[in-house]
Design goal:
about 500 residues; mainly alpha; two-stranded antiparallel ribbon; 15 helices; globular
Length: about 500
């Protein structure tokens, strides 16, 4: 994996996998290594790997030492956490899926008990004792592993690594010798930019650097990315301030996609410059969603497209969770003005706008009420303020509690990971907002009454996409075999 993990692996215990703060970290000694082998029935390894922890917590060290000396009967598990090399940072990296550890992010010693640890192939959770995994008895005598025995074990591991692989994947064969540089073609440069998901300016900069180092073919143009949208632009029209796709068949044909009219492939954004009109479901601002569903705009009584939530009955907002479901969207009834253009089930709740609606309830210095009301924050600014300790220190009492709850919801629900206890986290945040005296907006109502309507991975359907989305779907050199391929799906 190319980038670093969110957390350092040495912030976790190798034995149990729990977050271990500096005061609780201990080095792995030969005595602990021997006790680990005697109690758990396997050797303590992976200490030469960067993707594995190299420390153990004080609790596991004391438990193993006490068991070995006959002072403690057992540990809290029979099989320790099993580490393997992760394949990606999204759903197979233990250190990225655990919330960021540190005082600035809220994951301090006081909140260690609320951390929800994932059980994934690269880090399988410990297994407790049972009839199949009984508690072992400590030996009457033992000797710590010598350095020679350790060296022998390393030799065995190296011999196993040198054995031929049983994988059925084709081996990568370089097309040129290691002493001769490979000249990059235009199609290869285009696919490289797609794999790196670079915007136009960064793509041109990459091409310029490669050209400066004489790594491009003579006919390669580094300025071609400025007009890479021209092939798709005829499929779109602009009327006043509205950008829309007028030739769906042409757009999908340019992307080599078989058109299926039963599948909604629409992305709607309020921008007047970006051509964003391609995604599996509809994800956009709630005002745009209301227009598509024919709902009346403004501060209306029934503004939710999923249920008959009464936005004027403020006394019931935090006490009543289940409202009558909207069976039909009929014009002239309950704030419906026009016939809906799309099915309400095809809509996705935008995580970014939900975050903006939640942040408006906090006070920010030197910002007018009008600016906060209109939503002046964007995605990167939200991430920056979540890391700002100075802002957190200005909050006191229930505001600070609500801010910490908001941070946990953003990290464990509105991001690319949904924690197992996400319902409890959302419930705690709504309780803090109620104590803070916040009026329930439509965005807060979705969290209160329609939590199951959110997708499993909110970040995957977020509306924080760039205008190069359509162009990055294709490929110019599908027959080329690379030593390492990108995780993004290509058509």
């Amino acid at each position: 994996m190319s980038r670093k993990c969110v957390n350092n692996p040495d912030q976790f215990c190798y034995v149990c996998g729990d977050v271990t703060f500096a005061s609780q970290r201990r080095s792995i000694t030969p005595l602990i290594t021997k006790a680990y082998q005697l109690y758990l029935g396997c050797k303590l390894g992976d200490q030469d790997k960067q993707w594995a922890p190299h420390i153990r917590c004080n609790t596991c060290a004391s438990s193993l030492r006490s068991w070995l000396n006959g002072k403690k009967r057992s540990m809290r598990f029979a099989v320790p956490i099993v580490w393997r090399e992760p394949t990606n940072h999204i759903n197979d990296c233990y250190f990225c899926m655990v919330p960021c550890v540190g005082q600035a992010t809220g994951m301090s010693k006081k909140k260690k008990s609320v951390i929800n640890y994932p059980n994934i192939p690269s880090a399988m959770s410990p297994v407790p004792h049972s009839d199949e995994n009984p508690i072992p008895k400590p030996p009457e005598s033992y000797t710590c592993e010598s350095e020679n025995e350790s060296d022998h074990g390393d030799r065995v591991i190296r011999q196993e690594e040198d054995m031929p692989s049983t994988s059925r994947d084709p081996d990568f064969i370089p097309s040129t010798s290691c002493h001769q540089p490979h000249k990059i073609k235009q199609s290869e440069l285009n696919d490289l930019v797609r794999d790196l998901e670079l915007p136009k300016c960064k793509a041109e900069l990459l091409g310029s650097r490669l050209q400066q180092w004489n790594l491009l073919e003579d006919d390669v143009s580094v300025c071609v990315f400025r007009k890479r949208h021209k092939d798709l632009e005829p499929c779109f029209n602009i009327e006043n301030n509205l950008v829309f796709c007028s030739n769906i068949n042409g757009l999908l044909a340019a992307l080599n996609i078989n058109y299926n009219p039963e599948e909604w492939r629409l992305f709607i954004d309020s921008s007047t410059l970006s051509l964003k009109a391609h995604q599996w479901h509809i994800c956009g601002d709630l005002k745009v969603v209301a227009l598509l569903l024919g709902l009346q705009l403004g501060y209306t009584k029934f503004c939710c497209f999923l249920c008959e939530w009464d936005s004027w009955a403020k006394a019931l907002h935090y006490t009543k969770q289940n409202w009558p479901v909207r069976q039909f969207l009929e014009p002239g009834q309950k704030n419906v003005q026009h016939m809906p253009l799309v099915d309400s089930k095809k809509n996705l709740l935008p995580p970014l706008h939900i975050k903006l609606g939640l942040m408006k309830n906090f006070k920010f210095p030197r910002l007018s009420e009008a600016k906060v009301k209109e939503g002046i924050f964007v995605g990167p600014q939200i991430r920056n303020i979540l890391k700002d300790t100075q802002f957190e220190n200005t909050l006191t009492g229930i505001e600070k509690t609500a801010w910490n709850d908001f941070r946990l919801v953003v990290t464990n629900f509105l991001g690319n990971r949904k924690a197992d206890n996400y319902k409890t986290l959302v419930k705690n945040m709504l309780s803090s907002y109620q104590k803070m005296g916040c009026n329930m907006s439509l965005k807060i109502h979705f969290l209160h009454s329609h939590l199951d309507f959110f997708p499993d991975n909110c970040e995957a359907v977020s509306n924080e996409h760039g205008e190069h989305y359509c162009w990055t779907l294709g490929t110019d050199a599908p027959e080329t075999i690379h030593k390492r391929t990108a995780k993004s799906q290509r058509i």
